Amino acid sequence: MSRVLLFPLTVLMCGTGLWAQDRLLSKSEAFALALENNFGIQVAKNDVLIAENNSSLLNSGFLPNLTGNAGANYQRDDSTFEFPGQFARDPDTGGPLLDDDGNPVPRPNTSLYKAEAQRYNAALTANYTLFDGLGRWYNYKRLKEQYQLTSLQARETIENTMIQMFSVYFEIARLTENKKVQQQALEISKRRITRSEYAFEYGQNTKLDILNAQVDVTNDSINLLNTEQQLANAKRDLNVVLAQNLNERFAVDTLISFIPKLLLEDYVDQATLNNVAIMQTERNLAINAYDIKVSRSGYLPVLDLNGFYGWNLNQNAPSAFFPGVNVNNDRNFGLGARLTWNLFDGGGTAVRVKNAKIAKKNQELLKKQVTLEVNRDIENALAIYENRLKIFRIQEQNVLTNQNNFERSREQFQLGRITSIEFRQAQINLLNAQTNKNLAKYDAKLAELQLLQLTGQLLNVAL
Questions:
Q1: pLDDT (mean) for 312-341
Q2: CA distance 424 to 32
């Protein structure tokens, strides 16, 4: 029975050893891949490009409008002109032309065949608003602030994505370390089976010790399989965040370093200057200020300039009365100005100004609220980070204690002074201490990252 158990376990250990051959995906490389490939970040970057286009001079209204138009027309006529009741005139006497019998000769019909006429025209019209109460200028400044706001929103998206990415990355690191711990536990349990079988053959223990060891091997194998499944799922989750092949194989860096306390305190002191949420409220305040000025521009006049240049060519076909071709070629040019002053618009401008001022007051209140909430979140995040860091240090010491206890228990077990159940309990205690230490380590690091995000330094420090 023990050999039947050991064969699949050997295959399992060989299979799990393949993961060691995977390439190392460092934290900096994962950061760069997420920044380049993540779909949410790409959408945010495109939004920034749209805002940049909107804030350019081409969208400001400062440039003139130039309109060109041209036309051409062709006409062909085949006509017959009749003169009922009219008589031909004698060119010599000017009187009616008479035939040989002395009767008046009727005026003959006149025909025009392929009478062609062409008409061509072209014109350029230019319009430019010289002054509009500074509305364009303030709207242009507003678009610049909107671009800055969109950039901050993109930065917030990037920060949230990086927190998500590192959460999955550190979960992979935790499961990787747990897997090693469980592999060690499985090796110890397998050696217990061999020792129990030898002891049973020499009459030093009972069959129960072998069965207990086999049960422990089974439990350790199941735990290892579950951890490997969780590890595979977590790696697929990271591949989704990095927008790469779901089955991309890699290993992660399990080394963790924490930022020095003095540097972290400096980040906290400057948090109100760098926090992305507070910076967004400041940009919104600037936008509201420009909204007021844009609305006030409605009180001032608008001065428009316009100019045009036109060309027309008409080539008329000959007619019965004008047998020759008639050509008319015209060119014209003009300049003009128009002053428009809406002296009273029913109070619409006054209402817009009042509403813009109220919106600015609301934004000032929102900034105070956001600042207060950010300061609270920073205080909470700092306390959580310090608490988790202390827990991690305690768990480190706990691992050392349980390691010493396990080593002594193994010596006692080999000497036959304690039972296999007592030895197994010492092994479980060490396993729990090691996995708890792994959990505490990455919890502390994630708490540090969340604190860095609140202080606006997440994208500026090496992790």
A1: 78
A2: 45
